[in-house]
Input
Amino acid sequence: MTWRMTSIDIGVHDATDPGARERPPDPEVEPMTRYVIALKRERRQEVSVDWIDRLQGAPGVEITASAGNRRATVRATADGLHELHRRVGAFCHIEPVIEHRTRD
Output
């Protein structure tokens, strides 16, 4: 499977302005995408309760929330995503966060 990030995935749109056009990303700041990481049901018994600690200090990864020892939400760069797959991909699902908003 090949991952390809688009400008929508990396968040280069100004969400506060509904008419805003895409702006080029800042070359000094590598874009980060939000992901949810959840334990695979069939692997829960095999994994230690501190598996989220394996994510601490991963380059290009920031943990933003965790719910017990079953799931975590992170922000990650493209390289950080590869690191997540390397560290916990064997026993976790890693998916981009999809937000649904209603139009007012």
